[in-house]
Amino acid sequence: MTKARKLSDLIDANGDVKSTHLDNVVTETKPTVSSVSPSTITNSATNITITGTNFVAIPRVDIINTATGIWYSANTVTHNSATSLTVNVTLPVDAGTYRIRVENPDGLAGLSSANFLTVSDLPTWTTSAGSLGAVAGNTSGTIATVAASGDGITYSEVTNVLTNASLANCSLNSSTGAITSTDFDGSSTSQRTHTFTLRATDAQGQTADREFSLTSSYFTSATVSYLVIAGGGGGGGDGETVGGAGGGAGGYRNSYASESSGGGASTETPLTFSAGITYTITVGAGGTGNPSRSAGSNGGNSSISGSDITDVVSIGGGRAASTQGQAGQAGGSGGGGSYGGAAGAGTANQGYAGGTGTQSGGYQSSGGAGGGAGGAGGNSTANSAGNGGAGLTSSITGSAIARAGGGAAGSSGSYSQGSASAGGGAAGAHGGNNNGQAGTANTGGGGGGGSTSGYNQAAGGDGGSGIVILRMPTTAFNSKTAISGTYTTATVGSDTVISYTAGTGTIAF
Predict the structure, then answer these.
(1) Alpha-carbon gap, residue 47 to 50, rounded angstroms
(2) How many CA atoms lie within 13 A of 66 on its CB side?
(3) Structure pTM?
(4) How would DSSP label each residue in 135-198?
(5) Residue 367 exposed, middle or buried by CB count within 10 Å (0-12, 13-18, 19+)
(6) Minimal CA–CA distance to 236: which of 325, 330, 319?
(7) How would residue 1 be classed by pLDDT, with cut points 50, 70 and 90?
(8) Do the beta carbons of residue 247 and residue 335 sit within 8 Å?
(9) 21: DSSP letter
(10) CA-based nearest residue to 217, from 242, 246, 185
(11) DSSP 475
């Protein structure tokens, strides 16, 4: 039997164990866990290095998810030294709350602090590797956008190509993945392909790299469809008791899709615009309406010209007759003739002739209507003034719009006035001493004829101004070096539509 001892036999006056008995005191040597590398891993089997003290071959290692209370045993444990272990672990649950427990063979264990190890998926690229497309050199704006999924993704370039001013000359938005430039491909004037690597980094510092490329393209030539409509002719005023004739529509030339040109012609051949050439676009003004018994004017020509193309010229609409016995003028579409006067002829493949006038009895008579791109002007008949010739419809702007209709004839006495045509041609006036209406702007519609009662006098309406519309691939439009004039632009699918509405303008590539 062991002899009992008093406490005073073991502890001195200072509370310390007397040296004569230290050999009989048992001390514990527990392992400690101070760090782990890497501190963030994925769900796949991964080797981690645990650093600490007092590791004895070969300890047991467990990973504890403190959020769920689940313990995961290490797949393998390698004892490197008393201060280092290499451990392979598989942790199926993403979390930032894992602790590490190391237990030596003697049963003594050490536990890391909380949230010692994080398990998280790597960033995943959603933009496919490879080409991000061909972009016109010198483009300013958004070039492309890349995307990856993950927690708090940021983007950066690993290489020095995309953001190099002498190469792609782009900027990368670290938050959105948008690639932009103020001058894509920098000072280059010939095609280049830029290959670069981008990195997606998540909130845990994990990364995923992917290689992409962008190719610059430069304008050499492009196919350009057009719609060229001249200004409409002025309408006729009354002449004594003669109702005013209608003005002819502006000439109509078209190369878009399968839509016809004026005068029943088939679609024309589109133009080819080339680099280094300046192309001039002219929009014809509408002709003035005839004052009573005085001549007005034809509409102005509209055109596209350039040193390497055959000019496209649409002829202005013919003015209407201004007095009894006078002929309408020839034009893109012809102006209406008065009673006793011939109708104006249209231009081949641009428009139709005007109509002729008639007399119902005594001095009451009415002029003919102006021709349109889609049909001849109506002849006046007994008690009925002629209707304007029909226009044509084009969808070059993305919407179906009728243009280049002839102006209708005005009434005289008991005649009823002519009706407006589809395509911007004006209606004729009715009643005593009323001026004709004007054709619609930017349609090339003919002006309407004035009305008369007795010997009152009225003027014809002005013709509508013309328009020139160009449609080309947006990639070609983006390659332009200069553009001027009065115009608007619109994007229709992969094309850009430029509508010139007045005066003279230019475009160069």
Answers:
(1) 10
(2) 14
(3) 0.66
(4) EETT--EEEEE--EESSS-EEEESSSSTT-TTTT--EE-TTT-EEEESSTTTT--S--EEEEEE
(5) buried
(6) 319
(7) very low
(8) yes
(9) G
(10) 185
(11) H
Q: Residue 468: which pLDDT band, with cuts at 50, 70 and 90?
A: very high
The Cα 436–Cα 244 span in angstroms is 8
| Domains annotated on the chain, with CATH | 32-119 (2.60.40.10), 124-217 (2.60.40.60)
Helix (H) or strand (E) holding 8: helix 7-10
Residue 61: beta bridge partners? 102
Asked if residue 215 lies in contact with residue 191, where contact means CB atoms within 8 angstroms, the answer is yes
CA nearest to 246, candidates 413, 418, 373: 418
Q: Hunting for tokens 């304008």 — which residue is that?
A: 219
**Tell me, what amino acid is at 385?**
A
Nearest Cα neighbor of 481 from 308, 303, 282, 274 is 274
Q: Which residues, in sequence order, are bridge partners of residue 201?
A: 154, 207
Tell me what the mean pLDDT of segment 170-183 comes to.
98
Q: How does residue 237 score in pLDDT terms, banded at 50, 70 and 90? A: confident
CA distance 491 to 472: 10
Cis peptide before 92 (omega within 30 of 0): no
Cα 468 to Cα 373: distance, rounded to the nearest angstrom: 15
**Any residues with CB less than 8 A from the CB of 465 and at least 6 apart, and which?**
231, 232, 283, 284, 285, 286, 441, 442, 444, 501, 502
Contact 356, 380 (CB under 8 A): yes
Residues sharing a CB contact under 8 Å with residue 399, sequence separation 6 or more, in sequence order: none
289 to 5, 18, 377, 400: CA distances (angstroms): 135, 129, 17, 29
